[in-house]
Amino acid sequence: MTENQRNLILRLRKDGEGYKTIANTVGLSRDRVRSFCKSKNIAGFGAAATLNIEEQATDGSICPNCYAPIVQSTKGRRKKFCSEKCRREW
């Protein structure tokens, strides 16, 4: 899976698309798309996944750029992004 395919899957999933639609668009199998979404914690029905992504991004548990989990420190300011790379891309 290429980086462009990953980004396209994340964007389509955020828009509420299902696994089969995304698989046809990206050119991968439905199971491959589903396993990728599970690894990024955006599994489930399309509309529910969209709400889950938005909720997690606003409470700071996932990166708004790549949807990776963010490990928050107990001290100091809360992180908004998982890495400096994501912060710059955003």
Molecular structure report:
- By secondary structure, the chain is mainly alpha-helical.
- The mean pLDDT is 83.
- Helices cover 56% and strands 0% of the residues.
- The protein has one domain (3-89).
Structural Rg: 14 Å
CA-based shape: globular
Mean pLDDT, to the nearest integer, reads 83
Strand content: under 5%
Question: What share of the residues lie within helices?
Answer: 55-70%
Number of domains: 1
Largest sheet: none
Contiguous low-pLDDT stretches (5 residues minimum) are none
Query: How many distinct helices?
Result: 5
Keywords:
about 90 residues, mainly alpha, 5 helices, globular
Q: Can you describe this structure in just a few lines?
A:
With 90 residues, the chain is an all-alpha fold. 56% of the residues lie in helices and 0% in strands. It has one domain (3-89).
Sequence-ordered SSE layout with sheet pairings:
Blueprint: H1 3-14, H2 19-26, H3 30-39, H4 46-59, H5 84-89
Helix pairs in contact: 1-2, 2-3
